[in-house]
Amino acid sequence: MSNVYRQFTALRQLSRRGISSSACRQVNKVPEKQKLFQEDNGMPVHLKGGTTDALLYRATMTLTVLGTGYVLYSLFDAAQPKKKA
Q1: How many CB atoms lie within 10 A of CB 48?
Q2: Is the dihedral of CA 7, 10, 12, 15 positive or negative?
Q3: Which residue, 41, 45, 70, is CA-closest to 57?
């Protein structure tokens, strides 16, 4: 019984140590990000994050255009009368 209690106590101490030490290593990067996004450099805010934001923006625009084209094609196809076989 005491062996199980020791294991439980050790596990509890380990979990506390992991949580408390990880809190000390956190770095507050919010002021840096605020400074970056509040700069007036003529760039739209959705592209100020760098290359990743530019790639995500282009991917979103590409999917939007392709999706719109497919919807228009489907509507046109559905509006056509069916041929009798």
Answers
A1: 15
A2: negative
A3: 45
Only one residue has tokens 């934001």, namely 53
pTM of the prediction?
Answer: 0.56
Query: For 49-57, what is the mean pLDDT?
Result: 92
| Phi/psi of residue 43, nearest 5 degrees | -95, 140
Whole-number Å distance between alpha carbons of 17 and 11: 10
54 and 47 in contact (C-beta within 8 Å)? yes
Q: Which strand (E) or helix (H) includes residue 19?
A: helix 2-24
